[in-house]
Design goal:
The chain is an alpha/beta fold and 204 residues long. The chain contains seven helices and ten strands.
Length: 204
């Protein structure tokens, strides 16, 4: 089971994720978020700290084209993660693999949504909350996750060390993504929670 620790805002927290066995870290570039990184210099420092075998993911919400290009010039990012209403054409123009986030509304057809982004390298399923593009801290019904999907699915939304093993068992995702569930306060991670989350995710 692959694990991404999102909302990293310091080198110390990035290294805690790596030491715990995380496969990826997420950096948030969305100003309204308490986990937003407003310094490309800091983001670059964090990205370079994790070593060559840890994937660095940049989280974006309806960004301007120029902003994404500036980010990619300054920060060694491996994967882009789009949380907004971006089109497939927009997501595909940056010479980077990308994930599209699907917010799990009641009537969402995950497979149909996936077909609209045929070149995405994967899809992240997150809890739907009106007006909130992510980081809700709430989970959704994991039974809604389609089994044997055509592309990798990453499970997010309200995951924690306590429930991640059940989520993995029920949804059988490619990977899991956590932010608030391993924090002391928004943007400040808890080393023990990160360690427990990775361990429990990989138990299944």
């Amino acid at each position: 089971m692959r694990v991404k620790i999102c909302g990293i805002r310091s080198v110390d927290d990035a290294l805690s994720a790596v030491e715990a066995g995380a496969d990826a870290i997420g950096l948030v570039f969305y100003e309204p978020s308490p986990r937003h990184i407003d310094s490309f210099l800091l983001a670059r420092e964090i990205s370079l700290s994790v070593g060559p075998f840890v994937t660095v993911v940049a989280l974006l919400v309806d960004p301007e084209l120029e902003y994404v290009n500036s980010l990619l010039e300054a920060v060694p990012v491996h994967v882009l993660q789009f949380h907004g209403n971006e089109s497939a054409e927009f997501c595909e123009q940056f010479a980077r693999p990308y994930m599209k986030v699907l917010r799990m509304k009641k009537d969402v057809d995950v497979l149909a949504e996936m077909h609209a982004f045929p070149n995405a390298c994967g899809f992240l399923l997150d809890t739907y909350k009106k007006g909130v593009p992510g980081g809700t801290g709430e989970s959704f019904d994991w039974v809604k996750v389609p089994l044997n999907p055509p592309k990798p699915l990453i499970l997010a939304g309200g995951l924690s060390p306590k429930n991640v093993a059940s989520a993995v068992r029920i949804a059988e995702p490619y990977g899991v993504d956590v932010s608030g569930g391993v924090e002391l306060t928004p943007g400040l991670k808890d080393k023990d929670k990160i360690r427990a989350f990775v361990k429990n995710a990989q138990m299944e």
